[in-house]
Amino acid sequence: MSLSFFDQFSSPSLLGIPLILISMTFPALLLPSLDNRWITNRLSTLQLWFVNLITKQLMTPLNKEGHKWALILTSLMIFLLLINLLGLLPYTFTPTTQLSMNLALAFPLWLATLLTGLRNQPSASLGHLLPEGTPTPLIPALILIETTSLLIRPLALGVRLTANLTAGHLLIQLISTATVALFSTMPMVSLLTLLVLFLLTILEIAVAMIQAYVFVLLLSLYLQENI
Q1: Among 73, 123, 163, 222, which is most exposed with the fewest C-beta within 10 angstroms?
Q2: Under a CB-based contact definition with an 8 Å cutoff, are residues 62 and 220 in contact?
């Protein structure tokens, strides 16, 4: 059976049952559970420091009203971060390379921020569709453009995350395939491609972390517009 480069993005299944839910819930098992002890271990201390750092970074652009979303945004950030990083391990599946999953995360949260703005300050939320001082002949066109840009926000969130992770995985597989294929004929070139593969892996680790942060940061900025 011949495999293509895109087979790594197909959802794994066992006896016809999709295993994507298991791959999505597995990162939660890696987090240490909190207990009531006053003295915690180093792993729990590191976890608490990391969560506080993420929460502080995400809540900085938000006012006090937006701090109610701290739990949702921080949990989403840790969830995406763990999935993206675990997907770089060999023989693993990355659920965030699926556009359907990313849109399922982006669309409800974007809609929640939009409905929050329409409920709390409807005039200000609708006022974003028409900048102040717009000439009268341009009003219909600008309303149409701003409405379109507003509606494609969840699509842009999902496509950005999917495209970046998919491109990185494809590059890693292409270079690793070239490294193995050149090892028997041109060992020096193979070692050079192995070095490139090592550097690309470091880059992809950074991309996985940055894309998780950008996804949640943009959601927090959309929330700030509506509160």
Answers
A1: 123
A2: yes
Q: What is the DSSP letter of 38?
A: S
* CA distances from residue 45 to 31, 33, 148 in whole angstroms, order as listed: 12, 12, 45
Q: Which amino acid would we find at residue 145? A: I
Tokens of residue 150, six digits: 């507003």
> How sure is the predictor about 107, in pLDDT bands with cuts at 50, 70 and 90?
very high
Handedness of CA 183, 185, 191, 194 (dihedral sign): negative
Dist. CA 77–CA 87, nearest whole Å: 15
pLDDT in tens, 42-80: 777 787 888 888 888 888 878 888 788 888 888 898 889
Give the confidence band of 125 by pLDDT, cuts at 50, 70, 90: confident
Cα distance between residue 156 and residue 103, in whole Å: 9
Question: Residue 25's CB: how many other CB atoms inside 10 A?
Answer: 10
Give dist(CA 220, CA 62) in Å, integer: 7
The model carries a pTM of 0.81
Q: How many helices (H) and strands (E) does the chain have?
A: 8, 2
177 DSSP 8-state letter: H
Strand, coil or helix: 31: coil
Which DSSP letter does residue 32 get?
Answer: P
